[in-house]
Specification:
This protein is α/β, with parallel strands linked by helices and 263 residues long. The protein contains 4 helices and 28 strands. It is elongated. Helix 2 runs antiparallel to helix 3. Helices cover 17% and strands 25% of the residues.
Length: 263
Amino acid sequence: MISDKAHIDPSAKIGEGVTIHPFAFIDKDVVIGDGCVIMPFASVIRGTRLGKNCRVCQGAVVGADPQDFRWKGGFTYCHIGDNVIIREYVIVNRGINPDTEGTRIGDNSFLMAGSHIGHDSVLKGKDVIGNNVSVAGDVEIGECAILSTGVVVHENSRIGDWVLLKGGCRITGNVPPYCIMAHNPASYFGVNAWLLRSKGAMSQERVEDIAQCYRHIYQTGTSVFNALQRIEADVDPSPERDRIVEFVRGNKLRIVATPKDIE
């Protein structure tokens, strides 16, 4: 069902089985995949590509102009994967560079009401972005991450897979995989063990190995460099151990909630 009261630019490409409610705005050079639902007063702006079976709720703006002075008005992109739910008054900015893929929201992600995703940020998929979360530009969020209500993530931060950021947490930097971070300034609050076990992602033994890795990093008082040496010596090799080590090394040992004088 496509309402005749919606504004749909003739250049927009609309898939099969799409529902567009009255007073929705579909800009030029937009692609909307099969089975999508665009609710009243939602806007899908030029350069946006929606995958299949997405839902864009009232007042949301997908592909909004970047909020960055470096953007000079060029044609840029916003890619939304399949089965993504974008709730009321969410804003997703597209990229600032026409030569890149721009902002990307991975499959099966859920963006709750009032959240904001900045330009060129990447959500890898199966992520939950809570109410009124603010994600700045050039942020990367791994798979299966949860950002609770009111979380703020600053520009160029990186969030690993299966991370849980508790409500109101402010992140300036890099959060390694499987962690829980809480408070402001952010503090290490343990391993996201309940979610890892409840979703069947891994066994108790593997969860305990992850916890051992983070005891070395956050609870021994040593430097991050020395903690990685201890992890490789004490913890049996596994995909999870290697992912933690690669994340920390790949970010030049700069991770949140470690004292600056022992990095």
